[in-house]
Amino acid sequence: MRTSQYILATLKEVPSDAEIISHQLMLRAGMIRRLASGLYTWLPSGLRVLRKVEAIVRDEMEKAGAIEMLMPVIQPADLWIESGRWEQFGPELLRIKDRHNREFALGPTHEEVITEFVRKEVSSYKQLPLNLFQIQTKVRDEVRPRFGVMRAREFTMKDAYSFHLSDECLANTYAIMHQAYCNVFERIGLEYRPVIADTGSIGGSVSHEFHVLAESGEDAIAFSSGSDYAANIEKAEAVMPSEPRPAATKELNTFATPDAKTIEDLKTLHGVKPHRCVKTLIVYGAPDEEGKRGLVALVVRGDHELNELKAEKHPLCDSPLEFAKDHDIIAAIGAAPGSLGPVGLSIPVIVDRSASILADFVAGANKDGEHYSGINFDRDVANYEIADLRNVVEGDVSPCGNGTLSIKRGIEVGHIFQLGTKYSDAMKAGVLNETGKNQIMTMGCYGIGVSRIVAAAIEQNFDAKGIVWPKAIAPFQIAIVPMNMHKSHRIPAVAERIYQELKAAGIEVLFDDRKERPGVMFNDMELIGIPHTLVIGERNLDDNCVEYKSRSGENAMYNLDTVVAELIAKIRG
Amino acid sequence: MRTSQYILATLKEVPSDAEIISHQLMLRAGMIRRLASGLYTWLPSGLRVLRKVEAIVRDEMEKAGAIEMLMPVIQPADLWIESGRWEQFGPELLRIKDRHNREFALGPTHEEVITEFVRKEVSSYKQLPLNLFQIQTKVRDEVRPRFGVMRAREFTMKDAYSFHLSDECLANTYAIMHQAYCNVFERIGLEYRPVIADTGSIGGSVSHEFHVLAESGEDAIAFSSGSDYAANIEKAEAVMPSEPRPAATKELNTFATPDAKTIEDLKTLHGVKPHRCVKTLIVYGAPDEEGKRGLVALVVRGDHELNELKAEKHPLCDSPLEFAKDHDIIAAIGAAPGSLGPVGLSIPVIVDRSASILADFVAGANKDGEHYSGINFDRDVANYEIADLRNVVEGDVSPCGNGTLSIKRGIEVGHIFQLGTKYSDAMKAGVLNETGKNQIMTMGCYGIGVSRIVAAAIEQNFDAKGIVWPKAIAPFQIAIVPMNMHKSHRIPAVAERIYQELKAAGIEVLFDDRKERPGVMFNDMELIGIPHTLVIGERNLDDNCVEYKSRSGENAMYNLDTVVAELIAKIRG
């Protein structure tokens, strides 16, 4: 490709609305342009990268035995009503009406459509297992689209769905797909980790996310120092401390805390160490048979954070978790948040594992402006339950039993689920089994954010000059930069010959034939992140040489007679 | 691919809701399934065909110098308002609102989005010409989706847009794209014709459609017997007859026609030959300065059909063309349709070229239940204009000047336009020209219905057994059909070896390893339309042979030792 017949669309300035480095560099390097909030056009260079990611994903899916098909973006509302998600999904599901006023959704995911397809087409266990995938434009009406293609409203996704007669068969396909995902990220050349994940609104039991590690990541991942264990912090278990609770040594005493509403206030004004006090959070309980919801107190150590996903999975709590309104708290407890504690409560109390081994600790006295010191469980707090309620922190014992946890940031680029029968039950998707009886299928689903991978790859591979693409997904393999070509006789001829010979060998070459100063051309090629650059200048030609630069900093001089063969070997090697 | 690990999804029965052969065969051969009206899932075999068409289109676009990018499906309403099409486009434009109640359209075409992109990114004539394309899912909310993927609501299209400083440059790119389109259809192996076309709602001046010829085509195409001239009947000119109008020989006379309302009635009840009378159609005229519309009479021979596109382009007629309501006709003329004619009208009269050379002809007397005979222009019809108002018919003189016209049916699979400045004017898309002044760009646009090509290819290539795919787009190149494999020792080994050897040579093989009767397997492979089939049976193996069948009827016996090499040569040849 000649730059004179291409759209480079590079920008010198950092766009003011781009917060993270990948968004800035994708704009500056001419990979994408914003059309509207969360809607991006892929420019030629960006599309080349996107297609390379797609091709690797497709290849690994086929190797894993998945079969490609293509479902519509526009999905009838009926199917979503049948699965129950028309109500559940919320405003991220972009709902539309056609000219006849019939309701549809623009697909963020295709569990309903594929289940509808399979229940109609597959009637016998002999046709199972089946693993179907597509690579497609998806739509999700994000409340706050941001970070460019990282969290866009229209994006490219690979979604696969598998159907089985037994959970063992599902687990087997799940393991194959897990490996295929590892292969994808390894081939692209990313530092990534599969982590144990929550199943969220998709549902199911076992689930793994695949994260590209990067400081800008929106997710926190807990890693064990002693094993391969890794989990999204949403899901990482905070284990029961092995040390026993010390015996009580102090009496229960109140002290006045008129200005202390937070753990920080207690520390500053009263010298209470955060890990020696607890915070008590009041949420609504699971509704009773008449639909009424009581209150539940959640108790975690002052220096710990409540993990809302863990709390909402506790049978006593309502789901999704909802914090109680102040007037409900005051009516039930007689004090407002800021002075709450576990002593003498008449509502159910759930105590986090780490908080449960405290002795002689501090908490609110359930009387405005007063706290207790010297609190001890059992003696002062009669009825309570112990559960894992908090986020793990750096240094926690790993739930795998080996080593301690460290926390890193990750960008979620893949998510796989053992769905079980959530959709096949709701949509009555069964086949005849070996005994001739109808049996509901069990399902897996497997997603990769194809367009998000492009951005995640940049978050992990850039420097001050621009993008440093991993070889497997660079938009071009090599750039040819002839210096002051338009003032020379020799340079255009040499550049053209090398360009044609590399192209003939199947190498993807960007030939910068613009009338630009060498500095402008170098800056553009580095910004775009092309792995190899060949510089053709008069002085080197005098020595029958051309200069080679790699994007990662390597420099070399090649003889003009052998340069093409050496470059081909270098690029393929 | 092994059928046991695939979804063949073939059907024995002809689906009752499929009207045309391609729709029936795409369902029966497991290419597509209907999700909802006009929304289809592409099954694995269908998707393989679709991707092959895409690849050919992409390759020819790149050879023509077009650069691929990818724009969003969801487009902001603002841009459509700016171009004027938000109002013009009608309900085919599927309009949606996001969670913030902002208006968007699902793109049926991308003139607005590409013009917005180019006006922002391109500032100098040095960056022109530019030819950008994408292959993408498009949405059009058809009032009556039908014929499967032929007229679907969601479909795959290749759309390209070119930008130029001059009309000459546009014409040059247009010619290159015209040739690229010919290359696409030739490579796919279709009988097609480029035809002169109307520009419709897209706009512009010069335009060609590319039609795949097939009896089921929705369009009528006029072809010259004496040249390459071909035009959509919408656009084909009916030339002025060369013979002069005969002199009048009869007096103007009325006759009673109380039961004759149509040309057919006049013929049956009164013996009037259709080509010796005229029909007079009353439409609304172009609005005057105050926006009022008068009436206009359109006169065509009794055996000819009004061409509404030609009529609405006449400056006296309103556009779009609208037939006058009966009460307006009666108020102005004093008679109702059925007894109308050109004699004594006080409204403008436009007479079709062929009607204008009639003498002594018959028409309504503008008095209910009466007709005139012996009408002659000039003597009886004082003020009239002559224009081309009718559809051409078989046998008409060709407008190219050579030969006569014949009419065939075609399926429109491509459409290219010299748009001119319609969008760039409305959206103020200019660049600095060589003199440093801002100049509006001139544009071309070029569409191919990628998914429609799949259906059109079937309309042209099928037989009683199913689809007969052109080699270039067949889902698989060869099928291996082992007979009663599960009862044999030798057959599975031979089939497996040939399968592996063909695969290793890069051939796309469908290996039918199902436990099905040979007849079922043959029927499926023929229905799917795979060009080559290799049959492996016990009896032939005794002779060290396997049987070959081509989908087009060829049969041969190959020696087991050389069969793979011979098949590879055959498939590639």
What is this structure's SSE topology?
2 copies of one chain form a homodimer.
Chain A: H1 21-28, E1 32-36, E2 39-42, H2 44-63, E3 67-68, E4 74-76, H3 77-83, H4 85-88, E5 94-97, E6 103-106, H5 111-121, E7 130-139, E8 154-164, H6 167-188, E9 192-196, E10 207-213, E11 219-224, E12 230-232, E13 253-256, H7 263-270, E14 278-284, E15 295-301, H8 308-313, H9 326-333, E16 349-352, E17 361-364, E18 370-375, E19 385-387, E20 405-420, H10 422-426, E21 430-432, E22 438-440, E23 442-449, H11 450-460, E24 462-463, E25 466-467, E26 478-482, H12 490-504, E27 509-511, H13 518-528, E28 532-536, H14 538-542, E29 545-550, E30 555-559, H15 563-572
Parallel strand pairs in A: 3-7, 15-16, 16-19, 26-27, 26-28
Antiparallel strand pairs in A: 1-2, 4-6, 5-6, 7-8, 8-23, 9-10, 10-20, 11-12, 11-20, 13-18, 14-15, 17-18, 20-23, 21-22, 24-25, 28-29, 29-30
Helix pairs in contact in A: 1-11, 2-6, 2-11
